[in-house]
Design brief:
- By secondary structure, the chain is α/β, with parallel strands linked by helices.
- The chain has seven helices and eleven strands.
- The protein is globular and about 50 Å long.
- It binds adenosine-5'-triphosphate.
- Adenosine-5'-triphosphate (ATP) binds next to β1 and α1.
Length: about 220
């Protein structure tokens, strides 16, 4: 079993209350959570990453309990070994491609050297065809290159799962089609479980796998594409 999630969380802001009450189990290596804006997708992803603590429930990944409110288990985000790819990729603007990717390998506060190198770093530079732009900062990259740098930075840490928040939203339509295919191939090659959230039905239909539809904080439909 890759994922088992059964969580509840109430978010309050003034008079407004949002209840997340989500429950699913999946054996699929690729899971898509699809739903309109405000459905609760990001909160769900944050709970898996350890960035949001549910009020109640259980989160299990590949047989490992990451969160269990009854047993008092709450593994820190750093120890969960899940990589989070943010919607805007969150690259460091003052670091070049090489440094941005190297950042994924190390803890601590110091920036990697502009000439950082390691076997893993060289591997990802080649795998994502980023060697030619390795010395450039994110501002001098195309949208697809930026996404590949973010993916390389996430994957170099050898995560147990990859969480993707609207990974294609910032791309133009042609590039979106290409990057969907690249992610598809990457998932097949690495076999790493991916959990992707989107409000685009095309993402759900093309990336496929186990597609869960979310509405108003709950999973209301499941299908396999
Ligand atoms: N800190 C908070 N306090 C109160 N309500 C919150 C908080 N964070 C999020 N919410 C509410 O929770 C609901 C779900 O938000 P979430 O970001 O998970 O939606 P989403 O499905 O990811 O939407 P989008 O596709 O627009 O990113 C929204 O109604 C939002 O207003």
């Amino acid at each position: 079993m890759y994922f088992h999630i059964d969580i509840e969380k109430t978010l309050r802001s003034g008079q407004r209350e949002f209840k997340l009450k989500a429950n699913f189990t999946s054996n699929s290596g690729r899971i898509v959570i699809y739903g309109a804006s405000g459905a609760g997708k990001s909160q769900m992803l944050k709970a898996v990453a350890g960035l949001m603590h549910p009020d109640r429930g259980v989160i299990e990944l590949a047989g490992k309990r990451l969160f269990d409110s009854v047993a008092g288990i709450n593994i820190t985000p750093q120890k969960r070994r899940v990589a989070y790819l943010f919607q805007d990729y969150a690259l460091f603007p003052h670091l070049n491609v090489r440094q941005n990717i190297a950042f994924g390998m190390q803890g601590g506060w110091f920036n990697p050297k502009p000439t950082a190198n390691s076997e893993a770093l060289e591997y990802w530079l080649d795998a994502f065809e980023l060697r030619a732009v390795a010395h450039q900062p994110p501002s001098q990259l195309s949208g697809g290159q930026r996404q590949r740098v973010a993916l390389a930075r996430a994957l170099i840490a050898n995560p147990a799962a990859l969480l993707l928040d609207e990974p294609f939203a910032a791309l133009d339509p042609a590039l979106r089609v290409r990057m969907r295919a690249e992610l598809d191939a990457l998932q097949q090659r690495l076999g790493i479980p991916m959990l992707l959230i989107t409000h685009d039905p095309d993402d759900a239909n093309t990336f496929g796998g186990h597609v869960l539809t979310m509405s108003d904080g709950a999973i209301i439909e499941e299908r396999h594409v």
